[in-house]
Amino acid sequence: MNGFSLKNKIFERAFALGFSACGITPVKEVDATHRLHFDKWLQKGKEAQMQYMRNYKDKRFDPRLLVENARSVLVVALNYYPSIHIPENHPQFALYSYGQDYHIVLKEKLNELFSYINTLISIEGRIFCDTAPIMERYWAQQAGIGFIGKNTQLIIPGKGSFFFLGEIISSLELPWDTPMQNRCGHCNSCIEHCPTQALIPGDFTTLDSNRCISYQTIENRSDIPFEIGSKMNNRVYGCDTCQKVCPWNRFSIPTTIPEFEPSSEFLSLDQEKLEHLTHEDYNRIFKKSAVKRVKYERLLRNINILRKNKSES
């Protein structure tokens, strides 16, 4: 079987598993421009309290250090855009958190794809789904899946940005895909609509995590600064504003992955229910959810901020 036929079979299998996009690129060191931008981001403290972003920089810049005999990065994208959304007058959760934890769902599908590839050709490799220091969006752009927009998200032309990314780094060698160029043009909608001005324009948009509502409501283990909390409005977990205002997301279509659809109980969570949320409720409703990244006490912190915002509006 020649390389093109093998590639077609692998991609066909990826699409059959529910992936919306697939691309492959040779593995090598991340280019100097992106390395410099990442270093400057850290130097300016824009990672806030995410100290893990400073770890394993050698592996982050060169995935060959993660996988012996690596030759390629196969990147896939999995649509998580839900068919039903929480009512706008209810506390808002980031769309990616509506269904089951993506780490579980994506890992299972990547394992299936990896096993299938090994029925066609014997390879060495590892799967990744936000589980190692990999610059996922960079490799997705290199693999021709999409481009990194001014909102710092991976945007797939004609499909939008509501996707999870996964990778198979392996000894597989196939005809490579062409890196995609940026297609934001003169649009600055994400930068202009960010409620806390967390997106700093430049040759590469810089995300200031200290000002990002997603960071503050999910990653921040301390008190949320008043100047950020007062602009959370009714966002209780994460923020999708920079994605929702992106023109490319007018192409978003509902996911075909049933695990990413929300439960009726999740959709019914209004302010009153959240204010009376018990630890038992939390464990039941968010049992398999990415929301559990925020411990019960921190979710209550966020809920209390929303209560104050509502009383002052």
UniProtKB/TrEMBL annotation:
GO BP: tRNA queuosine(34) biosynthetic process
Pfam family, one: QueG_DUF1730
Keywords: 4Fe-4S, Cytoplasm, Iron, Iron-sulfur, Metal-binding, Oxidoreductase, Queuosine biosynthesis, tRNA processing
PROSITE patterns for this protein: 4FE4S_FER_1, 4FE4S_FER_2
Keyword Nucleus: no
Limits of the 4Fe-4S ferredoxin-type domain: 172-204
UniProt superkingdom: Bacteria
Keyword Membrane annotated: no
InterPro entries with a match to the protein in the record: 4Fe4S_Fe-S-bd, 4Fe4S_Fe_S_CS, QueG, QueG_DUF1730
Protein name in UniProt: tRNA epoxyqueuosine(34) reductase QueG
Organism for this UniProt entry: Coprobacter fastidiosus
Organism placement in taxonomy: Bacteria, Pseudomonadati, Bacteroidota, Bacteroidia, Bacteroidales
Gene: queG
